[in-house]
Structure prediction request, 463 residues.
Amino acid sequence: MDSTTIAAIATPAGIGGIGIIRVSGTNALHIAQAVFRRSDRSQRRHAFLPESHRFYYGHIVSPESGRVLDEALLVLMMAPRSYTREDVLEIHVHSGPAALRAVLDLILRQGAVLAAPGEFTRRAFLNGRIDLTQAEAVIDVITAKTERALHSATAQVQGALKDHVASIRSVIREILAETEAAIDFPEDVGEEIDGRSILVRLEQEALRPLQALAAQYDAGHILRDGLKVIVAGKPNVGKSSLMNRLLERDRAIVTPIPGTTRDFIEESLVIRGIPILLTDTAGLHATADPIEQIGIERSVSRIEKADLVLFMTAAGSPLTNEDKEIHDLIQSKTAIWVENKSDLHAAGPAAPPPDTWRPMPRVSISALHDQGIDALKQMIETIALAPSLACESAIIPNLRHQHLLADGAAALVSAAEGIQNGTPFELVNMDIQSADDALREVIGVTIREDILDQIFERFCIGK
Ligand code: GDP
Prediction:
């Protein structure tokens, strides 16, 4: 257990009804006694010894100057029945930057240190109250933009993924125990290892569930992490107009991208419950201008990372070489062909695509006159949900889990092949053990410090 006592403002900055300062560590009680004065005068003669998990009403008073800083509610949650499993103190005061800052400063002067981002949750993990998948899910709850994302994140906070991994691990551990006993004490075990029954168990009770769990990332992560959609098309087809049209009603949060020049514009929105990260590319066209070229190269690399491309052309005007080049660029991507400016050429069926083009779902819209936008949204929804239809489970691993689950599954495949080929169990066990190592890393039994840093960096201070 870390011996320092940490403190932070736990509520968002700004003006609000209530702001909460949170303290965790062995000094929490001492801090409560030093800075809090109960309103109940009859109690003031006694040292303040708060009951755990009980709210007290009073004032925050500077012990140095005797000045009252604010009215407050205070609650002390004694270890281990607290978020971090340490003594945790929460002080509720009015939420204004000056009020909160003054109380925090006072607490820091009593010997607490300012908490790092995610440090409360990190302590909850290090002190064994939650495993790493649950700690990671806390940030998912906080950042969830849709109900579905929230549903998955809360299931994970409650331990859905942890329990699933634990049940697979227990099968793996049992198999290892059985085979190791037979290797170490062949005379005690009496019989030879029954490779056939171990193989069946390994495949059915460990490998398959593991593969299914890893596959749930592909099926479900879009609901949680969002669908990366990129609008690609030559200049003037109406990309910005479409962005604006989609954002008009659906904008959730504007996401500035730190550290990049704005060659492209990225916005978050929610379409029919699906979080979308929408990017407008810099006009994709041949240019000799080196600066423009850099922008175009960046756009190309973003296209590669996108889940869905909205390939835009302008109706009526014939397709040009530029359109064809962009079509070739998105060859391998899931795409919708969005023909804009339908208002200009409303009459007559759309011209057939060139023979060499692959089939793509196609929709005719007018970004300017708000036509066909609902049909486009419907197509986006269908594409986003297609893989998740089979995913009824709320357990959606994140990318870190998915890599480890895939590593674990690969190790079990290799173990199964080894058993089939009659490889000695000393060697097969190494594969089974490495599958278990991967699962241990998922839940954080073994985890490198720098990976922990990466995980908790994403948290805010105070969580
Ligand atoms: P971008 O260069 O692809 O981002 O294209 P813009 O969104 O800047 O649009 C280029 C021009 O086409 C602007 O003058 C828009 O007003 C116009 N435009 C965009 N969408 C439509 C549309 O649906 N119908 C018509 N008639 N004009 C449009």
